């Protein structure tokens, strides 16, 4: 989590107010000299002066020139400390929210990149493989049962490319020329618009002859 920090003089103002609230300096008591406070806080007298001015502005102390700094109110010292904690907590919460937003932006950028990469890959796949697969299920009327794809020469004769064969629950993806066609197989193929009809005529030539006789 991102840490919040405040100026040194504000920290010293809080520390002095805390000492007043705890009773180390009672109402009407004079604070230590500026140089002594600077030494105890390991800082410069100017930083202490700015811290004391803050406490005077909120009514915790009174600066009497030529005399020193005197405590006016313990209650206002407590209020000042509480306000400081509230502001600090708010700043810490805001810092945490900003960090969360930053992480979400990074995650969104990563997600956007992944989506763009997927879109590019999809386009590449489409242009390399632009046809929607079609299918043909082999039944006992098929004349090519027991014949290999290599012997059928489907691509040369129909322009169709068999990309997979489903046999039962198993798939033979990118089958080679030695793949044998059996009853119940489903052939998945791609090709031009007229490739399907040509492939079906190769697999079931008798159906074509029956249609010709009917005509």
Note down, in words, how this protein is organized.
There is one protein chain. The chain has 215 residues and is α+β, with helices and mostly antiparallel strands. It folds into 2 domains: 8-88, Arc Repressor Mutant, subunit A; 134-203, Regulator of K+ conductance, C-terminal domain (Alpha-Beta Plaits), CATH 3.30.70. It is 54% helix and 13% strand. It has 8 helices and 6 strands, in the order αααββαβααβββαα. The protein has helices at 8-21, 34-40, 45-57, 74-128, 149-152, 154-158, 195-203, 205-214; strands at residues 61-64, 68-71, 134-137, 161-167, 170-173, 186-190. The strands form 2 sheets. It has a 4-stranded antiparallel β-sheet with strand order 3-6-4-5, with helices on one face. The protein has a two-stranded antiparallel sheet with strand order 1-2. It is rod-shaped, with a radius of gyration of 43 Å. The protein starts with 7 loop residues before the first helix and ends with a helix. Residues 6-74 form the HTH gntR-type domain. It holds the Pfam family GntR. This is GntR family transcriptional regulator. Residues 94-121 form a coiled coil. GO terms for molecular function: DNA binding; DNA-binding transcription factor activity; monoatomic cation transmembrane transporter activity.
